[in-house]
Amino acid sequence: MTFRLGRPTMRTTRRGFLGGTTAGLAMTGPVVSARGRPNTVPIRKIATEEAFATPALAKAWLEIARTDPKASLDVPTGILSIFDNPRPGSNQDRFRRQLLDLDGERLADMDQAGVDVQVLSVTIPGVQMFEPAAASAFAIATNDHLAAAISRHPRRFAGLACFAPHDPIRATLEMERAVNRLGLNGFIVNSHTGDLYLDDPRFAPILEAAQALDRPIYLHPRAPSNGMAAPFRDYSMGGSIWGFGVEAGTHAVRLILSGVFDRYPRLRIVLGHMGEALPFWMWRLDHMAARRARDGRMKPLALAPSEYFRRNFAVTTSGFESPDLLDLVLKSAGNENVMWAVDYPYESSHDAVAFIEGVSLTGAQRASIFHRNAERLFRLK
C-alpha cells in the first residue's frame, strides 16, 4: 500500500502556544532579574501518558463487563467495572470521575502539581475490544472528543489518536485524518487486538502509515491476550502489578525479532513504565538473538535488538519512580529517548513531578526528560 499524505490543517492554533508564548519555560538555568538577582525559571513539564475516557466508551465497556465477563482478562482486572457505580470515595470512583473529566478537575490537578501539558490518550482497553465496524466508529468519535477538548484548552493538552487495528484500511484513513485534520500528535494502540500483535502481516498498512505520517505509536499495555492469560488469572496478576508489563513487553519483543524495523526503519514506538522491562532484558536479547541467527532458528536481523531499541523506541517513566530504574533506562534507551509521564489519573501528578525534580540528573537531562524529547517526538513545537 502506498500511503499519501494530505496537508496538515490544524497545527497553528494548537501549537502556536507551544512554540511561542511558553518558549521561556524551556529554559532550565538561572536568569537575572531586573534588580540583578538570579532567578530560576521553572522548567516546562509535559506529561506523556495521561488517560481519558468518553461516556460512550464507558457505557460500551461496562456492557461487555456485565454481559460477557470471560470475553477478556481486561474484565477481571477491574478496569471496566470502575464505571459501574463504584463506592463513593473509593479509588475506583475517583478514577471514573477523572477519566471522564477533560476540564476542571484535571486542569486543577495539573496546576497544583506544576504540569504544563498533558498528552492525552484513551485509557485501556480503548476501542480494540469491539467488532471492527464498531471499533472504527468509536475511534472516530473518540478522536473527535479528544480534539474538541484540545481546542478548548490548546495550551494544556495534546493528544494521541486511537484507531481500530483489526480494520487496517479504515485505520489508516483515521490515522491520516487524526494528524492532518485534527492536528493530533501520534497514535495509541492498547497492545493486542483479537489476540494478534502488530508484527502480524495484516497490520502492515498501519505501520506504513505511522512511518509515512512520521508520528509515533504509543504501545500501551492491556491485560494479557487469551493465548497467554491463564497463569495471570490468579492473585490479581493480570493488571498493573505484572500482566500489563509482560503483555506490552512481549509485544515489543515480537516487533523487534520479527524484522518489523528492518522493513520500517523510521517507525517509532513508545513504551511506558520505564520500557516494560526491556532495558533489563536487553543484554540477553542481544545474546540470544545472535545465537539463534547463527544456528538458523531465527532469521538474521540487520541490527542487534539493543540497536533497534535506541533507534526505534522511546520510553516514558509513567508509574515508575525508581532512580535506579531511570539510570538503567537512560543507559539503554539514550537520554534523547526518555520522556516523563504521570499515568494520570492512576498515579499522582505531584509524586511524578517530585521524582524527576529530586533525582540526580544534569540540567540538560532533566529538561530533555521533562519536555524537550516530547516536543521533538510528538511535534509539540
Account of the protein in words:
This protein is α/β, with parallel strands linked by helices. It has a single domain (11-20, 48-377), classed as Alpha-Beta Barrel (TIM Barrel), CATH 3.20.20. The protein has 14 helices and 10 strands. The chain has helices at residues 11-19, 55-67, 91-100, 104-113, 132-152, 168-180, 204-213, 243-257, 260-263, 278-294, 305-312, 323-333, 349-358, 363-377; strands at 30-32, 38-40, 46-52, 117-122, 157-159, 187-189, 217-219, 269-271, 313-316, 338-339. The strands form 3 sheets. A 5-stranded parallel beta sheet has the order 6-7-8-9-10. The longest helix is centred in the middle third of the chain and has 21 residues, at 132-152. It starts with 10 loop residues before the first helix and ends with a helix.
By CATH's scheme, which homologous superfamily applies?
A: Metal-dependent hydrolases
- Percent of sequence in beta strands: 5-15%
Q: Which of globular, elongated, flat, extended, rod-shaped describes the shape?
A: globular
What structural class do helix, strand and pairing data support? alpha/beta
CATH class equals Alpha Beta
Query: How are strands sequenced across the largest beta sheet?
Result: 6-7-8-9-10
